[in-house]
């Protein structure tokens, strides 16, 4: 029988086959081996912090008639995809998943009710733990929760901090432990949290001055791109506002839910506004005929996130579904809703914008090369090209942000967490630099305003002083 091991995203985990067969070929992403149906199948993953192992008995393959099948073994460095839904006690201990989450699947088979248990060895990766309980994740229990059904503790090696579980089914496994909160509080990356707050405040200041710049100066205000950019700045400003005032207000379920909804709405609205600008640019440069008014397309961008908010609220209701992990902060904790109604649509719009920008870039280059000898047309195309680059730069920043966000969820790597926080919390700073510092017209307006127009007068007098004087003819 052919068994294929497909590693999933993990914290630098390496996977190995331990069946003892000699005919084994190792690839970058797949381990394949020929084993007989009478052998147990053993797979393990190793990271710098843990060693995990699943041993599947041969009886698990008794109903497989084909001579080959696929076995998928995954190791998740974080339990963020598998939230623990408990009302935690107010004493010195709290419950948490103290191991990596291990997952095993046999292609096309529902492995359950085994008389010979599946052995799962899992390293404990938290400190000051006690009372380990073997659990598996049950997606059919309400919104999904950890369950002790079908799993027992076979042994506990406290010296090496390894728990061996025996389970009658194959799914997602973990070890639920009690943690002494007084001696070892939940892991909190304090520098990351401080940087998030400071970066958010700086971004709000930058966004405030960006909005002032885009609204107060007539020459800038009349540009159609500025009308989109000011809406973008307002949406991001509101997102940061609700992030700062309510992201950690977990004591109120209603308040936490409201904060989560506003953050979700303004985040999706900001991405939708960039999508609207991409559509308008595509219509003006590619379709040409007809007219889409920026006001209509802006309204669509502001309304677009609403159905996702309503569907999510109707599906989840309020309360613990908007509390992440052990209640550390407020946002969507249901993994299906998070991907389906938030991250999925955001990444879809980013991909859509990327396709539009590639098409527009191709047209601009073609027009520029065609009009290379016509100075006026050349300047016009070059001006459009500069506008295009400004939109792409902003979109590139946002695209990287959510790409790092997706990697953060998949791998829980601290490097990706830092990259996500940097690109997220410094959005306003980047926009301020782009709209106010790097833009020449904005700089000129601010310099004239700060010098009370003296700079403009000095420039004019300088021009007048160098005007040539008419020569008098000699008598």
Structure description:
It is found in: Membrane. Residues 27-183 form the GAIN-B domain. Keywords: Disulfide bond, Membrane, Receptor, Transmembrane, Transmembrane helix. This protein has 475 residues and is an alpha+beta fold. The chain has two domains: 2-180, Chondroitinase Ac, Chain A, domain 3, CATH 2.60.220.50; 190-455, Up-down Bundle (Rhopdopsin 7-helix transmembrane proteins), CATH 1.20.1070. The chain is built from twelve helices and 17 strands. A six-stranded antiparallel beta sheet has the order 2-5-6-10-14-13, with no helix packed on it. Helix 1 runs parallel beside helix 9. The longest helix has 37 residues, at 375-411. The chain starts with a strand and ends in a 10-residue tail after the last helix.
Secondary structure elements and pairings:
Layout: E1 2-5, E2 14-17, E3 24-26, E4 31-34, E5 41-46, E6 51-56, E7 71-76, E8 93-97, E9 101-106, E10 118-123, E11 129-138, E12 145-147, E13 151-157, E14 162-167, E15 172-180, H1 190-216, H2 218-221, H3 224-246, H4 253-287, H5 294-303, H6 305-316, E16 323-324, E17 329-330, H7 335-370, H8 375-411, H9 414-425, H10 427-437, H11 440-450, H12 454-465
Antiparallel strand pairs: 1-4, 2-5, 3-4, 5-6, 6-10, 7-9, 8-15, 9-15, 10-14, 11-12, 11-15, 13-14, 16-17
Helix pairs in contact: 1-3, 1-9, 1-10, 3-4, 4-5, 4-6, 4-7, 4-8, 7-8, 8-9
